Amino acid sequence: MKRSLALLLILFFVLFGGVSRAITISPDDVASHIADPNSVSAILKATALFDDNKIPQLDTYLASMPTLLREETLTVLARSALDFSHMTPEREKFLVKISHQQPKYLVKSQGNGYWVTMPAFNYAGEAKWVLNRWEIKLLENEANRLLNYDQLSLAKWLSFSSADYALRREALVSLISHLTLPALAKLETLYINDKSMVWSPDNAVLAALTSRTGSDELYNLLWLRRTDNYSLEVLQKLDVPPITELDIDQMIAATVNPVLADTALRQLSSLNPLPDSVKAFLLKKIGDRRQGEAIVVLLAKKGHRGWLLRMQKQASGVTRRNIENGLESVKI
């Protein structure tokens, strides 16, 4: 009985001890604190110590601050650490330490029919985010180095089943965004020749590489893979003016993917005037017994009724019937 009571007391303090130590303040309190000239001066001094990598002195200075001011200062320091050109082992260790701490001050504000409570200064969350971006930066440097030395194996390096796959994926996507054309060509060859990349759990890397290179072979691989938000975003970007013939060709090619087909057809039907290549493609689609009438309806709603009427006079069979039925269902 005594043991059970002791366990209940321990559980109570674990569950509610942190809450009892928390201090809730209002948004106005936070705003007033931030505007205090003394707070600004203290933060500037702490930032100078951080910039000079004087972490022991910084720790001592932070310990002398009131808690609310310290939490604001830690938030400012964490954000400033996003300048990775000044990252040091000492800075990284400092960020790791504060990322494991629990902010004491909470701010409570009212939403649309509900109340929200969150840290007044979420320095721990800021530090975790910076450390996450720093790890991605280190992985990006590693991938770039391996690529330069012809030692990068994409599927092996990405390691699809590893816990850090998402970080490695983001690192590679970031690297692709600023590679030189020769390096992009090298990476494209690596991707195409690496048959294990077919097991990639998403299209992030392929989409980034395709967008940068404009490679027909990569586009074809992307359209044939299972659709996700990455491949959909690539398709939608093709519809952003100025739209080139190459963009149009890829929108047509994307219709091979059953999931992307509707989006691609909507984008193509929105072109005005319709290019000849699109007219030829859509006319063939209109002749399809299953979807032809629906495409006529789509085109009519997009302002192409005049073209459809001209095609109706020239067409016969299924194509003509689909145009007639489609236009009949879309009365002006």
Describe this structure in words.
By secondary structure, the chain is mainly α. It has three domains: 15-129, no CATH class; 152-227; 238-332. The chain is 68% helix and 4% strand. It has helices at 2-21, 27-35, 37-51, 55-63, 67-80, 89-99, 123-148, 154-158, 165-176, 181-193, 204-213, 216-224, 229-237, 245-254, 261-269, 276-286, 292-301, 305-314, 317-329, and strands spanning 23-25, 105-110, 115-119. It has a three-stranded mixed β-sheet. A hairpin with a 4-residue loop joins strand 2 (105-110) and strand 3. Helix 9 packs parallel to helix 11 (204-213), helix 11 (204-213) runs parallel beside helix 13 (229-237) and helix 14 packs antiparallel against helix 15. The radius of gyration is 29 Å and the shape is elongated. The protein starts with a helix and ends with a helix. Residues 1-20 have low confidence and may be disordered.
* Overall residue-averaged pLDDT value: 92
Number of distinct beta strands: 3
Give helix % range. 55-70%
* SSE class: mainly alpha
Content of β-strand = under 5%
What distance separates the N and C termini?
82 Å
Radius of gyration: 29 Å
Q: What is the count of structural domains?
A: 3
Q: Which stretches of 5+ consecutive residues score pLDDT under 50?
A: 1-20
Sheet with the most strands, sense and barrel status: 3 strands, mixed
- Provide the spatial order of strands within the biggest beta sheet: 1-2-3
Can you count the helices?
19
The H-and-E topology, N to C, reads as: HEHHHHHEEHHHHHHHHHHHHH
Silhouette = elongated
